[in-house]
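P.,

For your records, the input lines for the assembly:
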Amino acid sequence: MDSTKSSDKMPVGVLGGGSFGSAISNLLAENQPVILLTRSQEVADSINATHDNRGRTMHENVRATTNAREVAEQCRLIYPILPSAGFRETIKNLAPHLTPEHILIHGTKGVDVQLPEGVQLTSDYKLNPKKVNTMTEVILQETIVRRVGCLAGPNLAGEILEGQPAATVIASHFEEVIKLGQKTLRTPRFQVYGSHDLTGVEIAGVLKNVIALAAGALSGLGFGENAKALLISRGLVEMIHIGKHLGGDIVAVLGLAGVGDLIATCSSSKSRNFTVGYRLAKGETLTAILADMEEVAEGLNTLRISRSMANYLGIRVPLTETIYDVIYGEKTVEEGLDYLMKFPFYVDIDRSMFRGN
Amino acid sequence: MATKVHNSDGWLYDPILPDSSTWPIVQLTNHRDEFLKELVELSIQNIKETLGNNPSNLKDELARTLYTERIRLTQTPWKADAPDEKEFWSQVKKHMVRINAGHENPNAFGHEDLIRRIVTRYAEEIAGVFDVKAYDFAKGFTTFMFSRLLNASQGKGFSRFWDSRHNLHDKIHLIGEIDHIRELAKQGTVIVVPTHFSNLDSMLIGWAIQSIGLPPVLYGAGLNLFGIKIMAWFMNRLGAYKVDRRKKNTLYLETLKMYSELSLRKGCNGLFFPGGTRSRSGMLEKRLKLGLLGTALQAQRMNFVDDGEDAKKIFVVPVTINYNFVLEAQSLIDQHLKISGQEQYYVENDDFSTSSKMLRFIYKFFTASSEIAVRFGTPMDLFGNRVDEEGRSFDPHGHEVDIKKYFYSNGEITKDLQRDAEYTRMLGERIVERYHCEAVVFCSQILAFSAFRIFKARYNRMDLYGLMRLPSEDLTIRPKQLMDSVDKIVERLREMHAGGEIQLEKEILEGSLSNIVKKGIANLGIYHAKLPLMFNAEGDFQSQDIKLLYFYHNRLEGYGLHKVI
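Structure tokens returned:
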């Protein structure tokens, strides 16, 4: 794309200079200038001086800043690509500068829970699904922005940064948001699909991370494709089961954000969630793994939330329960596997799950 | 600040616009012909747009309209239909035949003349007339009747009819953010959206609105109600516009929507029952019918297009009407159980179909009635934002919001119906949320909720329909058990009230447990021949009609209260 021409266009904002935020910035930069909000001034300076973001090369159309206000004032369209844990805080800081004209399309695959002070999500905590917010809900609660969308799909940041072909889904209730997302993000190597099922797509993208943790563990144990296929297909069923209680939809699980993303993250050592599972199976402790990971594995947070939500709802989710027990040291990987293999499953797909959603 | 005046009529507030000639609704009537002309032209524009500006779609829609209208004439004729309906539609048919045979010179858009003819007829049917004298009369008359009936009901029959010791406002409580709403009505357009449980709601809300000093509101009334003579006489003069549920063709729907939009643009305050119809289950509305509410978004957008920074804003006021009992409860809950959640066509029931039935209904209502609370909720803009007394919008963190920009794309106002439909849907969700926060709980509802939940737990193997068939002998509760459960619910309700999640009548806030139960049992569905809950000879609580108990219990559904018992 001709960069002199694209610099006349209105810039697009990206919040978060992590690996996925960088990948999305670079894609966007092919079509228009990008203003990237980073947390550290040092990183911003480095991007502006040498296009280097901690080892990742940024497109020359990407300019970095640490000033949220600047992003809001110069961009009407903003992509928040932040870890779920810091999402609400960053959005709150941005909120005073936002107007109803702004459009936000987030790329965060996690959920937000507001717990009373001092309360921790433990294996027996009962979490009311009403207290679980999608990132869209956080945006609607904290800002005056109404035109909101989300971005989900098999988008391993490393591959996108290398310029490999990929596709994503932009989901929103607003046709305008989907079209704008497509216009700004589509490149010859990046296909963008649209969906109106915002919650369904969000939830599918969130829940798949739990399964990715388990896929990593299976791989770490040295198991092959049968085991992985078993995990993926049973994992999908459990995603639907839990997702329904969060307002998700079965159809979205079948799309890029569900099956698509699940296959990608369950097969790739580039996925953070996969890596956590893999290293656990190799005998490392969770604390040791987390200590040297650069970015958050969203699956861990989602796992705790899914587990305590299942307690509240009184539903059995054997996969999630087992993954939880293994990750938090109540079972070894082998014991977990043994438990699942002995669990009295009977039906492959329970048809009642597909009725009256 | 509003001036509150207590006088014998029960007036509480000064009218904010004392001079009726300045009321937008009066202006609308005074310039009715011009208004209708504008309405017709704008409707035709929208109809063409809806049909993709495609002459062959237009032709198809015309044929479909003619076909369905002729079926309506023979299969569902109403008393309120104009006498020349048949004549008109056979003319339309001839007109169409002439065009199709090429005898009529088809203009640029083919069937435009014919469309104008039909839309003009629809517009004239829909549009109401407002008559200040009739309004003054109705105002005086309703207040007079309401207070007389109320006084009669407090004594033994009509001997007390002329007493005025009971003020209407002692029984019908007008509460909530009234001063705030009055301020907003001075500078913008107000849309009142009440909950809907009873046929009396429309009269009650009309009376409530004039009692707080607002100029009259424009509201849509089912065309079927115009078949009742007294109703028709009033409604024809009070600016009600007619909504005909039988007509579902594009020409009619676009004309109706444009009527609503245009009247809002002209500054007429509006009233919508967003639930569409009375709540059959007794639950608060969960899903709203948004059709006409969507016209408010269009009106607001056009206000900004026409007047820029000086544009009038439109405000939404959710109102809850809270009863101790609903006169039609029996037939409503029967219908609900029959339909069990499915939206089906039902035959309009009989309890309101003639003038004498209606009068009997009103008489019963007042003679049996205990308190009613009409709560005017927190006003908001069309995007669910909080507004201050000057009508400025604010986000949750107190920053001012320029709502004009919700209509912006690329820095300017654009027309995007899909976007606006989403805004309307979101507004609907906000209204439902507010209904739950603005609902006023009466002692009687707590009793109904507790008792029904106890039965449900006791017979937990039965489904709802099994439960509904239980004989009265099996429906008794020891006082201790009910008191315990009421106690827990009251405690939870007080917590919720402190958090602004619900409103409570005074007794629940301050009264002792035994007083709450006493007041509750004295008021729970007292009008009904069989009581939803009463004391029996053994001193236990007993339900004579569990369906009614279920109906009144439903009002407290959706708050998660069953978790505390």
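Two observations worth noting. Chain B touches chain A through 23 residues (CB under 8 Å). Chain B has four domains: 25-126, 128-166, 174-217+269-432, 440-563.

Regards
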